[in-house]
Automatic annotation (TrEMBL):
Lineage of the organism: Bacteria, Bacillati, Bacillota, Clostridia, Eubacteriales
Cofactor(s) for this UniProt protein: FAD
Organism annotation: Ruminococcus albus SY3
Protein name per its UniProtKB record: Pyridine nucleotide-disulfide oxidoreductase
InterPro entries the record matches: FAD-bd_OxRdtase, FAD/NAD-bd_sf, FAD/NAD-binding_dom, FAD/NAD-linked_Rdtase_dimer_sf
SUPFAM superfamilies for the chain: FAD/NAD(P)-binding domain
FAD/NAD(P)-binding domain mapped to chain residues: 3-283
GO MF, one annotated term: oxidoreductase activity
Keywords for the protein's UniProt record, in alphabetical order: FAD, Flavoprotein
PANTHER family linked: NITRITE REDUCTASE [NAD(P)H] (PTHR43429:SF3), PYRIDINE NUCLEOTIDE-DISULFIDE OXIDOREDUCTASE DOMAIN-CONTAINING (PTHR43429)
Pfam families reported for this sequence: Pyr_redox_2 (PF07992)
Amino acid sequence: MAEYVIIGNGTAAVGCIEGIRSIDSNGAITVISGEEHHVYSRPLISYLLEGKTDLERMKYRPADFYEKNKVNLVYGKAAKIDTKKQVTILEGKGRFGYDKLCICTGSSPFVPPFEGLDKVKKKFSFMTLDDALDLEKVLTEKSKVLIVGAGLIGLKCAEGIAERVGSITVCDLADRVLSSILDAECAAYMQKELENHGVSFMLGDTAVKFDKNKAYMKSGAEVDFDILVLAVGVRAETELAKQAGCDINRGIIIDTGMDTTAANIYAAGDCAEGYDSSIGANRVLAILPSAYMQGRCAGINMAGGSSEITDAIPMNSIGFFGLHCATAGAYPEDGEIYEERTDKGIKRLYFKDSKLAGYMLIGDVNRAGIYTSLVREQTVLDEEMTEKVKKMPSLAIFSDEKRRTKLGGVV
């Protein structure tokens, strides 16, 4: 009987479990979880603080998921992978042998070495359920919150606590919010919605020093706060893989089958650096759908099946206070940009070489799935099809075969 070990207990791990079980119903699966929680959906931690969900509804799979899939769930931290003996060694105690191993360690907050940070008592990250629960304990209706970082994590934190605190200030060295996925105009549109709900911004500026409850900004300004949230960025957790001999760049380097350069070791999720078809090169795609797909692909291959991912692209679907935003693909500067603007949102499509290379949608995101398929599949568009994509995108754009696949055999 095969022995499988999965390090991590997030979305990628679930995909890996389900991938293994699609091929091997009897092999022994051990999941090593650094968090002492049932697998949950991390994007929901802000909604927990808003009161829009609870711990039970946050579960990414039902309570009996591990039992049904015959998974041995172990709470602990993996300290070392002995590749010669094919054993994973936990901190303190515990050793688990494997025939195939998948590293799904995710990412961790990047915290710059701010001067005086050690003097700040109420400081938090905002990536895990425990982070959210710890932050919730100190929130009051008079709290003055400073969030360092205007990316997705920082802004979701702002949304989650906006109705529970006195004030929120978000600072970022970038000149716009969500700078990794939105251009200046689209970012300004999202920023306005956040400001309408009481969030203040200091952009092009950031904290450089702290003295207890005071932040000294790069611009020379000073900001008083009661609570500090650090959401500067994240880094892929690669140390275990590096020790095991896997090649590392910004993430653990994997091929299209999620195999690393170390024998019998796979990687998936935010810790991995896989192929991005929108740029034709490897990079970390730290998004939930990719984590699951990579995990499932790894699990299938670990169990002796055959699977690969050659069409992964960056994509995001987010929202703040009811204003939705969806993005995907690349935004080439040397292509054609098609734009529609209304009082309810923005649609921006990027075309290059007779293909839809990427898009940004704010407000109406109902056609995002069609746009994403066109980007992912690199569909070649003639002039008539291009006009349909711009004005009236529908499944009619795809071939009969593609439509059958997307509609489950019905055209």
